[in-house]
Amino acid sequence: MDERRLVRVSKFLAKHLRHEPERIGIELDPHGWVEVDVLLRAAASHGFPISHADLRQVVADNDKKRYVIEEGRIRARQGHSVAVDLDLPVVEPPPFLFHGTVARSVAAIRAEGLRPMDRHHVHLSRDGQTATSVGARRGKPVVLVVDAAAMHAAGHAFRVSANGVWLVDHVPPRFIRFPESP
């Protein structure tokens, strides 16, 4: 499959496994899973046929490992705006985590902290390089450093998805180190 098709299939999956499953007539179970065959039939009936081979390739080759297939079912690993319980345990985070954003968002983050916006969790990364690439999707990136150890000590619950994305409900401003001039 060529790169353009790979991206189109990945975006289709993100839209329907994370945000709008009802749009193609599928229903995610409480943990975000749907049978692969149900998804493929729904995609085809909505004018976007995907083969089993194409689906496996997108899952395997996705640079961020956004999707997982197990026991004939598929789900997105995180990033849902629809209600799902990913069943991830609370774990102790590393001392610092990182968040990539853009300069136009920094003032609001200074005032309110990091909020999940239209998702269920704030997404954090273990390294600044990943945060930089995340922030760069919307413009010139600004990387924020989160004092995860202090948050954890204050009772905030952290979870980590299988692809290494750290999830937390909210990051108050007092736990964020901002760059000198974003």
Q: Which overall shape is indicated by the principal axes computed on the Cα atoms?
A: globular
Percent of sequence in beta strands: 15-25%
Record field, number of beta strands? 9
Rg result:
18 Å
CATH topology term of the largest domain? ADP-ribosylation fold
Q: What is the percent of helical residues?
A: 25-40%
**Oligomeric state, counting identical vs distinct chains:** single chain
Number of domains in the coordinates? Answer: 2
CATH level 1 class label of the largest domain: Alpha Beta
SSE succession: HEHHEEEHEHEHEEE
Strand order of the largest sheet: 1-3-2
Structural description of this entry:
There is one protein chain. With 182 residues, the chain is an alpha+beta fold. The protein folds into two domains: 74 residues, RNA 2'-phosphotransferase, Tpt1/KptA family, N-terminal domain (Arc Repressor Mutant, subunit A, Orthogonal Bundle), CATH 1.10.10; 82 residues, ADP-ribosylation fold. Helix content is 34%, strand content 19%. The chain contains six helices and nine strands, in the order H-E-H-H-E-E-E-H-E-H-E-H-E-E-E. The strands form three sheets. Strands 1-3-2 form a three-stranded antiparallel beta sheet. Strands 4-6-9 form a three-stranded antiparallel beta sheet. The protein is globular and about 50 Å long. The protein starts with a helix and ends in a 5-residue tail after the last strand. The model has no long low-confidence stretch (mean pLDDT 94).
